[in-house]
């Protein structure tokens, strides 16, 4: 397997390992972007208003059960007459990857918004915030850890499933796996599989790093006060100003 | 707490026992022990496309009808996968295509006509494997284009295509990238270097759809494909014989080739024609079951 990686012939040409990695990341990126555009607004709406929670869970579970490889081939056969170019393969692959990525993003956004401390929302409403401002100024920042974890889950799934794009003649690291199997070149297959796993790990770490900077420090250092234990006021030393008032 | 530790210990002991059973009595489940006698049953393998599966099923059903125990292991994969399976004994009979097998076993061979190929194949087969009588039926790779493309460039042969290949996209299975009867051979023999190669399936729905809808300009199909007539494709003539003769021939492990087995398989090879294959492929494409189509053909030819 190391020999395969070192061989310079595998790093040049249209099937170069570098090119395949970039293609893989492009498919993943576009799929996640579209999935976020669909999943986040729905999750925010359902989390904020509380309406449609049953629907969101049902849809998310149904989408998770999709057989991705079969669906890709079916969509290619259906969509191919519409496009004369490579799009006939790209669009079905992206559709399937988006369908795969939407459930984790949608459900985690919804769960994150629901899990926001009710008193924080209450305080915001009490200060006169309108609903949209409550959502974006209070609920979203508080829900950010869960939303990001939804992204991490979705990214992991999409990176590992984007290998199916190679089945319908596209690029990506799946190319190494499928060609390796057909040509009985197991080194090639191993390299493909290992690179997919490494890529998934690296991107996952990257999102974790983003979370470290994006999430408010107040959330991560939050201490939870028990509701039953009464808070005792700390004894205060009298300040010079107040004692000046008391003194005759 | 006593109960907890008893339960934990029992669970650990059970897990350890399971793990230990895996260590003992291993050995390679795929390895053949002593040379298997026909009484142990013939295992018929096939490649991963319907026609190969159909031929394997025909062999198996005919052997069964003659009282010889036969099972099938269909859909193994491409030649690069199932020939090693034949060599190591996981299967002992398969329907092969004379020319392609020859290319696989002997890359240097120059034989292209049916008789040459048959002779060369007999010599190229490794020890312990032999071929029975080939059939007249052939199923060769064919480079197909749409009627529109053929009219546009006035194409009748692959040689005509070579001049325009630089503007065209070729579609085929992943094996074609490294096979002589593929991208490499088209360059060497015809000087045809295509603009791009799209990896699809083995002349299946993806390839046919891509050719019909313009994602590829030339496709690797097989000559008995019903799609060629249905979609009015033009099969380009292989005038320089890159795609050599592909007679259907049973390849069998020598120790399984008893007189009874040979008689059954020779009868099949004698009765099989290319037209039969085209008809049967048409039926398979209409989603009839492989077993039914095989049984019907055998019944027609009194071999069941």
Largest sheet of chain A: none
Low-confidence stretches of chain B: 26-39
- What Rg of chain B is obtained from the alpha carbons, in whole angstroms? 23 Å
Rounded mean pLDDT of chain B is 85
Here the CATH topology of chain A equals: MetI-like fold
Please state the structural category of chain B.
alpha/beta
Tally of alpha and pi helices of chain A = 11
Describe the strand arrangement of the main beta sheet of chain B, using strand numbers. Answer: 7-6-8-5-9
- What's the tally of helices of chain B? 13
Q: Percent helix among the residues of chain B?
A: 40-55%
Tell me the total number of β-strands of chain B.
10
Q: What is the molecular shape of chain B?
A: globular
Query: Separation of termini of chain B?
Result: 70 Å
Low-confidence stretches of chain A: none
Tell me the CATH architecture of chain A: Orthogonal Bundle
- The SSE order of chain A reads HHHHHHHHHHH
Tell me the layout of helices and strands.
The complex is a heterodimer of chains A (248) and B (304).
Chain A: H1 2-6, H2 17-49, H3 53-64, H4 68-79, H5 87-114, H6 118-126, H7 131-161, H8 174-182, H9 186-214, H10 217-220, H11 240-246
Helix pairs in contact in A: 2-5, 2-7, 3-5, 4-5, 5-7, 6-7, 7-9, 8-9
Chain B: H1 2-23, E1 42-45, H2 50-65, E2 70-73, H3 79-87, E3 93-97, H4 98-105, H5 114-124, E4 129-131, E5 141-146, H6 147-153, H7 158-162, E6 169-172, H8 180-190, E7 196-199, H9 205-213, E8 218-222, H10 227-230, E9 233-235, E10 248-253, H11 259-271, H12 274-285, H13 290-300
Parallel strand pairs in B: 1-2, 6-7, 6-8
Antiparallel strand pairs in B: 3-10, 4-10, 5-8, 5-9
Helix pairs in contact in B: 2-11, 2-13, 4-5, 12-13
Written overview of the protein:
The complex is a heterodimer of chains A (248) and B (304). Chain A has 248 residues and is mainly α. Chain A has a single domain (2-219), classed as MetI-like (MetI-like fold, Orthogonal Bundle). Chain A has 11 helices and no strands. Chain A has helices at 2-6, 17-49, 53-64, 68-79, 87-114, 118-126, 131-161, 174-182, 186-214, 217-220, 240-246. The longest helix of chain A has 33 residues, at 17-49. Chain B is of the alpha/beta class and 304 residues long. Chain B contains 13 helices and 10 strands. Chain B has helices spanning 2-23, 50-65, 79-87, 98-105, 114-124, 147-153, 158-162, 180-190, 205-213, 227-230, 259-271, 274-285, 290-300; strands at 42-45, 70-73, 93-97, 129-131, 141-146, 169-172, 196-199, 218-222, 233-235, 248-253. In chain B, the strands form 3 sheets. Chain B has a 5-stranded mixed sheet, with helices on both faces. Chain B starts with a helix and ends with a helix. The model of chain B is unreliable at 26-39 (pLDDT under 50). The A-B interface holds A 14, 73, 76-77, 80-81, 83-86, 88-89, 166, 168-169, 175, 178-179, 181-184 and B 77-78, 80-81, 84, 171, 173-175, 177-178, 196, 198-200, 205-206, 209-210, 212-215.
């Amino acid at each position: 397997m190391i020999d395969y990686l070192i061989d310079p012939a595998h790093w040049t040409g249209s099937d170069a390992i570098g090119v395949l990695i970039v293609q893989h990341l492009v498919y993943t990126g576009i799929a996640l972007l579209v999935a976020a555009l669909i999943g986040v607004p729905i999750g925010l709406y359902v989390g904020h208003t509380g309406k449609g929670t049953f629907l969101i869970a049902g849809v998310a579970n149904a989408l998770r059960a999709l057989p991705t490889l079969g669906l890709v081939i079916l969509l290619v056969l259906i969509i191919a007459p519409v496009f004369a170019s490579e799009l006939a393969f790209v669009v079905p692959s992206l559709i399937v990857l988006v369908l795969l990525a939407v459930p984790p993003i949608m459900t985690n956004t919804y769960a994150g918004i629901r899990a926001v401390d009710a008193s924080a929302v209450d305080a915001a409403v009490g200060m006169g915030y309108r609903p949209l401002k409550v959502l974006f100024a209070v609920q979203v920042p508080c829900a950010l850890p869960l939303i990001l974890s939804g992204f991490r889950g979705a990214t992991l799934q999409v990176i590992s499933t984007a290998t199916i794009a190679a089945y319908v003649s596209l690029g990506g690291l799946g190319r190494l796996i499928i060609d390796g199997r057909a040509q009985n070149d197991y080194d090639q297959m191993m390299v493909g599989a290992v690179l997919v796993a490494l890529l998934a790990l690296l991107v996952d770490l990257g999102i974790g790093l983003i979370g470290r900077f994006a999430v408010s420090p107040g959330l991560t250092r939050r201490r939870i006060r028990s509701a039953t234990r009464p808070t005792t006021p700390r004894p205060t030393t009298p300040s010079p100003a107040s004692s000046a008032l008391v003194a005759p | 707490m006593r109960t907890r530790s008893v339960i934990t210990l029992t669970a650990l002991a059970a897990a350890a026992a399971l793990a230990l059973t895996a260590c003992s009595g291993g050995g390679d489940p795929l390895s053949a022990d002593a040379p298997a006698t026909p009484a142990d049953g013939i295992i018929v393998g096939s490649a991963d496309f319907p026609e190969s599966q159909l031929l394997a099923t025909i062999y198996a059903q005919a052997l069964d009808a003659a009282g010889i125990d036969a099972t099938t292991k269909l859909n193994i994969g491409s030649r690069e996968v199932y020939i090693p399976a034949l060599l190591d004994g996981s299967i002992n009979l398969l329907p092969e295509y004379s020319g392609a097998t020859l290319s696989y076993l002997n890359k240097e061979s120059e034989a292209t006509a049916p008789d040459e190929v048959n002779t060369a194949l007999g010599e190229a087969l490794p020890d312990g494997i032999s071929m029975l009588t080939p059939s007249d039926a052939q199923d060769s790779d064919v480079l197909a284009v749409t009627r529109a493309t053929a009219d546009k460039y006035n194409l009748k042969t692959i040689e005509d295509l070579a001049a325009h290949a630089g503007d065209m996209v070729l579609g085929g299975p992943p094996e074609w990238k490294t096979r002589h009867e593929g991208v490499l051979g088209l360059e060497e023999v015809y000087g045809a270097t295509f603009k791009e190669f799209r990896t699809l399936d083995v002349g299946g729905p993806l390839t046919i759809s891509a050719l019909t809808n313009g994602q590829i300009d030339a496709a690797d199909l097989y000559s008995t494909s019903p799609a060629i007539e249905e979609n009015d494709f033009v099969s380009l003539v292989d005038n320089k014989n890159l795609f050599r003769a592909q007679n259907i021939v049973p390849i069998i492990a020598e120790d399984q080739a008893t007189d009874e087995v040979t008689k059954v398989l020779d009868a099949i090879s004698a009765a099989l024609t290319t037209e039969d294959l085209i008809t049967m492929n048409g039926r398979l494409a209409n989603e009839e079951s492989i077993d039914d189509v095989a049984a019907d053909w055998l019944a027609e030819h009194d071999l069941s």
